[in-house]
Amino acid sequence: MNFISICGINVSKTTRREVVEFVAERLSKKRKFIIFTPNPEILVIASKKTEYKKVLNTADVAIPDGIGLKLADPSLKTIKGREVMTDLFDLADQRRLKIFLLGSTDKVVNWSLKVLSEKFKNVKARGDSGPWLDKNGAPVSEQDKSREIDVIKKINAFKPNMLFVAFGAPKQEIWVNKFISNPPTRRASLQVGGVMVVGGSLDYFSGKAKLPPAFVANLGLEWLWRLVREPRRAGRIFNAVVVFPLLVLLTSFSHQSQKS
Fold first, then answer.
1. 75 burial level (CB within 10 Å; 0-12, 13-18, 19+)
2. Rg (CA), the chain
């Protein structure tokens, strides 16, 4: 998988098809994989947190999720993480694989499992909303610590081929890093074929959230659609639409200054 660096974060130059082929090969060879989905908002967070930046760079695939990333490299083909997620559901259906959905809420997980059973009949799927985590990916209470232990046992008993984690950034990447990325002992903490973080993708898949019209997505205005429907996301959207372009410009200027 080829990478480019955007603000110090590795981003894959790839396509949806290539991601699926990569996962299919890893599963065939029984080699674990990690898929992260860096978008402009995530890169802004990483620019302020060195440890988070290191975590993001442990991914085997870093899907360029967000049209704003083309500011850094116009040749980059952006990919929606939610579309790759359904591509992998389809792969699981073709191969009669097991998948586990972790995170979000009980209601969204249950709705998603229902949709999975209807659309991908050959998939064996289970899920759990898991523990409530803080921004550092740690359980927020003793009860949540117990839930974390219980859900890890549940996942390992099921031994899914693919685990989809929907805790939201930066929690989900940090959590995955704790139980998958850190060798050697932590690597065996989760007995899964591979893992993909999916943020709020299950909201769309389950039907909780409504997808934007195609023309909105094609114009690169999905951020505006989200702002209108979810004003509480204003801060996050500001980071993606305003702060990120400034960060790209400053990073580019800094590199040019160093060269000269």
1. exposed
2. 18
Query: Cα(175)–Cα(168) distance, rounded to whole angstroms?
Result: 10
Q: Is the peptide bond before 231 cis (omega within 30 degrees of 0)?
A: no
Token representation of residue 176: 């995955």
Q: Are 164 and 198 in contact (CB under 8 A)?
A: yes
Average pLDDT for runs of 10 along the chain of length 260: 90 96 97 95 93 95 90 88 97 98 98 98 98 95 96 96 97 93 55 96 94 73 70 75 80 60
Nearest to 123 by CA among 92, 155, 163, 161: 92
Residue 206: partners with Cβ closer than 8 Å, 6 or more residues away: 108, 111, 112, 114, 115
Q: Summarize pLDDT for 178-199 with one digit per residue, the tens.
A: 988 544 444 448 899 999 999 9
What are the C-alpha distances in Å from 114 to residues 78, 100, 179? 29, 13, 28
State pLDDT tens for residues 149-171: 999 999 999 999 999 999 999 99
3-state secondary structure the chain: CCEEEECCEEEECCCHHHHHHHHHHHHHHCCCCEEECCCHHHHHHHHHCHHHHHHHCCCCEECCCCHHHHHCCCCCCCCCHHHHHHHHHHHHHHHCCEEEEEECCHHHHHHHHHHHHHHCCCCEEEEECCCCECCCCCECCHHHHHHHHHHHHHHHHHCCCEEEEECCCCHHHHHHHHHHHCCCCHHHCCCCCEEEECCCHHHHHHCCCCCCCHHHHHCCCHHHHHHHHCHHHHHHHHHHHHHHHHHHHHHHHHHHHHHC
